Every structure is written in C-alpha cells, then in structure tokens.
Amino acid sequence: MAQIRIENVRKEFGTFTAVQSSSFTIEDGEFFMLLGPSGCGKTTTLRMMAGLELPTSGEIYIDGEEVGMKPASQRDIAFVFQMFALYPHMNVGKNISYPLLSQGMPKAQVKKKVDEVAQILGITDILKKPVGGLSGGDRQRVALGRAIVRDPKAFFMDEPLGALDAEFREHMSEELRALHDRMGATTVYVTHDQLEAMQMGDKIVVMNHGVVEQFGVPQDIYDWPATMFVASFIGSPSMNFLNFHGIVGSGTNSVDLGDSQIRIPEQHGGARGDLALGVRPEHVHLDDSSSYRGEVTATEYLGTTQIVTLNTPNGEIKARIPSSDRVHVGEKTGLHFDERTITVFETEKGRALLSAGNEGVLNHG
Amino acid sequence: MSFSVTEPSNRTKWVAGTAVVLYAVITILPLMWIIATGFKSPADSISYPPKILFEPTLEGYVNLFTQRTRLNEEDLAALPPPETWYDEMVREQGQVITGASRYGERFMNSVIIGFGSTFLCMVLGTAAAYAFSRFRVPLKDDLLFFILSTRMMPPIAVAIPIFLMFRQLGLNDTHLGMILLYTAVNLSLSVWLLKGFIDEIPVEYEEAALIDGYTRFQAFYKVVLPQAATGIASTAIFCLIFAWNEYAFAVLLTSGTAQTAPPFIPTIIGVGGKDWPAVAAGATIFLVPVMVFTILLRKHLLRGITFGAVRK
Ligand SMILES: Nc1ncnc2c1ncn2[C@@H]1O[C@H](COP(=O)(O)OP(=O)(O)O)[C@@H](O)[C@H]1O
Ligand SMILES: [Mg+2]
Asked: Relative to the CA of A38, which ligand 1 atom is closest?
C-alpha cells in the first residue's frame, strides 16, 4: 500500500527530452491510469517510478520517502511488462515463485503462497507447464501472479493488455480491475487506449509529448478538458471545436458566432484572438428553432445512437443523436449546444479558459 | 502431376540427397582413412594398391605410447618372457619397451591449454559482451571495431613480437603463456559473437529480475546466462577448435613442458622409420575430445549458427 508522488520529474535521453517536468500524486489504493499516444513518455515515466531509469531531475516519493536513487530491487514494487517477460527457462510455478526466492523465504511457505496466487488467478492446473506454450491470457495471468505473489507496495503495469486480442482484452481488463478491488493495492497502469483508461481508472493522467496535460478523475477529464489535446484525445468521436476569431471577456456568458448568440458558462478568464468552443457530440442537438445552422454531410448508424456530421460556418462538427431522429444528408438544420458543458479554448496555446464550469476541476492543479 | 512451391519434387530431392551423400563421403573419407591406418601394420599402411580390408592390430597405438629400442636376436632371446600383450607385440618387431612416450603428456597439454583458454575466453568474452550490450560504454562503436580489428590480420603475423615478449616475460613454453595467447586471439571474435547473442535477449528479463529483488549480478547470472547458453556453447566450440588445432604458435613457442599435440605428432614419424600407423593413432586420439565436445553441444551449435544468421 503506498502513496506515490512525482514532483517536477524530467527525463532526457541525450538531447531529446522524453518527459518534461511532470508532477502528479497517486493516492494509496488507487487504480491510476497513465494515458497518452504512443511515444509520449508513459513508459519512461513508469520506469522512473519503478527505478529502472534514473530521472534527469525531479523527485519521486513513495510513501513520503524520496526514492530517486534507490535501485528497483529495493522499492518493493511489482512491474508487469508489456511483453510479460516471463523467464523462458522456468516453468509457470517457478516464474511465480521467483520474487519470493530472492527474499530467502522458506520453500514450504513459497509453495503455499504460489498455490494461493494460482488459486486466485485460476491457473493451478498449469503450474507445472513451461511458459513457452501458454496462450496470451495465461501468460498475462502468470505475469500477474509473479506481481501479486509478493504483496508489493504498488503494481506498475505497462500496457499489460496490449498483446492480447480485442475480445480477450475486455475480459482481462475486468479481471484486472476485480483483482485490484480485491487486493486494494496502488496500481499504476499505462495505456494509449482512452476507452480502457476511462473504464478502468480511478484517476487519469493524460500525457502528450512528454508533458502532463491534465490529471484527475475520468469524469472531470471528459467533461472539462484542460487542453485541446485532451479534448480531442478523449472521447469517440472526440470533442468538436467551433473555431472563431473574437474576444471573450471575463464575466461573459455568451459568444457571437455570425448572427447567432451561443450561450456559454460564465467566463472567469478572458482572451482575444483565435478561439474555439469545445462541445462534445452528445451535447449538440438538432433544433430547428435555433438560428445557428449547419448542413448534414454524413450520418453513421450505431444502433441506439447515430453520429451526424455537419458543416457549419465554424468548421465541421459531429453530433450524437438518437437513431430514431430522422436526418438526411444535404438537409439544413438548426443547432443547439448544451450551454453548461461548453469549454472555450485559446487555439494558439491550446488551453482552456477558466469558467464557472471548469474552474473547480482545473484550479486544483 | 501437381506443382507445389513449398514441397520439392522427387527429382529435386533425389539430386539434393545424392549431393549431400557425396559431400559427406568426400569429407569423411580422409577421416576414415586416418582411423583405419591407425589399426594397420606398418607394411599394410604403405602397401600399394592401398588395402581396404586388412588385419587390424594395435601396434600403432602401442608404438604411439611407448619408447622402444631395437635389440639383436641373441639379446632378445636372452630376455625373460614378455609379461604383457604389448610387450609381446613389441618383441615381435625385434624391439623392447624402454619407457612411456611423450604423447600422453603432450595430449594433456593440449587439453589443459585448449580447454583452459576456451574457459577463460568465455568468462572474459561474456562479461565484455554483456557490458557492451547493456551499458552505455563511452566510444562503444569505436571500441567494438578496435576489438574486431585485432582479428583482421592472421595471428601469426605478430609471431615475432610475441616470441620476444614471451621470452622477456618468461612465458616461453609455459601453459599459462599458451592459454593467454589463445585467449587473446579468440577473444575478439568471441566478444562479437556473444554480444550478438546477448543483444537478442530482451532486457526486460533482467529488469523483471531486478524488480523481483535480485541484484544486477544475480539477474545476469540467473536470467541472462541460462538464456545465453546456446550462444556461449557455440562460441566455445569455435574457440576450442582454434586452440586445439593451432600449430604455428605451438611450434614457435613450445618445445617441452607445454608442447601441445599438434607439433608433437609429426615428430613420431622420425622414431624408427616411417611409422605411419603410430602417427595415425596419434591423430585419431587427438580428434576425439573436440569431436565429443562438438557432439555434446551439437544442438546448441546448430541453433547458435542459425540464431546468429537471422540477425539484421
Ligand atoms: N532509452 C532510450 N533512449 C533514447 N530515447 C528513448 C529511450 N527510451 C525512450 N525513448 C524515447 O522517449 C520517448 C518516449 O518513450 P516512451 O516512454 O517509451 O513512450 P510511450 O511509452 O508513451 O510510448 C520516445 O520518443 C522514445 O523514442
Ligand atoms: Mg510504452
């Protein structure tokens, strides 16, 4: 059980900066997601926390103790690698018992622990098998077994489901989450799959180009993205941006797009220049009474909902509406945006402006 | 008849099979001839046309391991009756055994120097290869190239400096000197081969071991070494074969205490006429250790060679 705190951690490989001055806190017992596109520095961040990589600068605290210079073997954490890294020259049971043997635990006790873990993971019948011929799911379970057998302070997992096929991923992710809830140990989980992060995580850090873009609970990140990157990375289809040039003053609660006035949450910061309104597709409603209009260019049927693509004076947007609503390509329609959910972005900096809506979420960081 | 891309036709198989058998015969024939000659009598060994079928005798082996002297009939008759079968065999040639030959010692020298240098080479080579593979070594590429470059000229090109150096250091005709020399010659290739093998082992295995609470050395010893066994075995065979067969340096630098078998075997010819069966017997026994070593490790050797071959 552990709280992990990252403060201004930075990692350079030669002249290339893989992680730039990152800070966040992982609370005890949390299922914590490190989310971002491939190459953004997730693995590097995790490896620094694990002690497999030394930070160029900054501090890492585990339970209040600074561990930056402590070797991996002394941090008492478990790491599940992307390719599982099961020792190929040992059988399943031996693999699971390996972390215990390093502590010099007596044989009988080791066996008891291994059996216990095998029971939890449902792999008792393959304990004697070599790891070579195992299926993806079983390899995953053995890797987990090796991680949990030692009761470490925290689990670090680097895209642990990446090697599994889609169907099995879902099953395994549920299994993982259930395992976490049962053991209650702090878990840091790396993924590039925003859906996985939203489904499984208690908290999410979104990274891009080595920078922490936002950090918080999934719902807050989804509703109140701090940057345009987060807005477009999370959600499918991603957040719409209605681009415009103008001024948003502090205290304003509407903007003018052409002849239409769009209501927005009361603004607490102000900006001028290239701006954008961020609206989630499910907050776009087709409403003929509205003066803001768009033309339907495509529809995509998804069962209970459909995604409608529209051309507007401020760019292409998508709306998620019930399938029962009849829309036709080429049709012109009025558009209404859910005013409480709109975020205003400064396009150049890509940052959200503070408003009555997102202030509570963005100000703590 | 259907045509298949993956399955060779019968005729192709037949041609390939014949070619392989022919090649095998050509390679094995001289070996067989040496082994056969070792069991021939001196007369059979030089008879013309050569004898395929002959009456086998151990004379060659007895002569290989003994020193003998020729006596005249009278003195022979005056001796007490022979005590052993090999005594008797020698007397029939009109000779008596005066002692053991040097072959046993020379063979042991070969074993000590060959296996000793191979072992040392594997220890140093694996350590160096691991470091080059895993750590950030300053000037890594230049160093690796330098190491390989020591192998670019034939080793014997440096014979004279080495001879002088050995004389200065008192390493002439010592086991230690020969072990060091063969290790030095083999090390460069070993480092390169082994680095290739270690590069192929994902670093995650060691990291997993580090996280499991093992030290860097334990991780190397318990996780990397077992996985590098194939590479180490095949590299060891290359090293042993070189050290075992090496002739030029052995002639130059050893004469007594540390003389290996290769320079010794030809000297057998001189002892009492051209004793081809004894030479052949010496060669046959000399072949055995490398053959056994290779056969024991053959699985690794094959895998090792193909393993290295698919690297980019
Ligand atoms: N050992 C290394 N040497 C040089 N560059 C590295 C090294 N490890 C990672 N990088 C670079 O750092 C960046 C972040 O890598 P990584 O943390 O693995 O990304 P992610 O896990 O988010 O896909 C990548 O551009 C990668 O090429
Ligand atoms: Mg990664």
From this structure: 23
Quote the tokens at residue A297: 């260019």
Question: How are beta strands A332-337 and A284-286 bridged, if at all?
Answer: antiparallel
Number of CB atoms found within 10 A of residue B108's CB: 13
Residue nearest to atom 9 of ligand 1 (CA): A44
User: pTM to 2 decimals?
Assistant: 0.80
Q: What CATH number belongs to A4-223? A: 3.40.50.300
- Nearest residue (CA) to ligand 1, atom 1: A13
Candidates B151, B164, B152; CA nearest to B253 is: B164
Ligand 1 centre from A210 Cα, in Å? 9
- Tell me what ipTM this predicted complex has: 0.80
Q: Interior CA angle at B249 toward B248 and B255, to 5°?
A: 100
Amino acid at site B312: K
Distance of CA A34 to the CA centre of its chain: 5
**Is A62 within 8 Å of A2 (Cβ atoms)?**
yes
Which DSSP helix (H) or strand (E) runs through A265?
A: none
Tokens of A93: 């049971």
- Min Cα distance B218 → chain A (Å) is 10
Q: Distance from B205 to chain A by nearest Cα, in Å? A: 5
Confidence category of residue B309, pLDDT binned at 50, 70, 90: very low
Instruction: Please write the tens of the pLDDT for every residue from A88-116.
Output: 888 999 999 999 998 889 999 999 999 99
- pLDDT band at residue A161, thresholds of 50, 70 and 90? confident
Q: Compute the distance between CA of residue B54 and CA of residue B47 in angstroms, rounded to an integer.
A: 11
Report how far apart, in Å, the C-alpha atoms of A316 and of each of A192, B137, B141 are. Answer: 26, 53, 53
CATH architecture entry for A237-362? Beta Barrel (2.40)
Question: Are the CB atoms for B178 and B246 separated by under 8 Å?
Answer: no
Residue with CA closest to ligand 1 atom 21: A43
Task: Please report how many Cα atoms fall inside a 13 Å half-sphere around the Cα of residue B4, on the Cβ side.
Answer: 7
Q: Which residue has the tokens 């077992």?
A: B226
Domains belonging to chain B, first-starting first, are 104-267 (1.10.3720.10)
CB contact under 8 A, A102 and B214: yes
Closest Cβ–Cβ partner in A50, A89, A99 for B213? A99
Nearest partner of A340 among A231, A261, A253, judged by Cα: A253
Cite the residue boundaries of each domain of chain A with CATH code 2.40.50.140.
Answer: 237-362
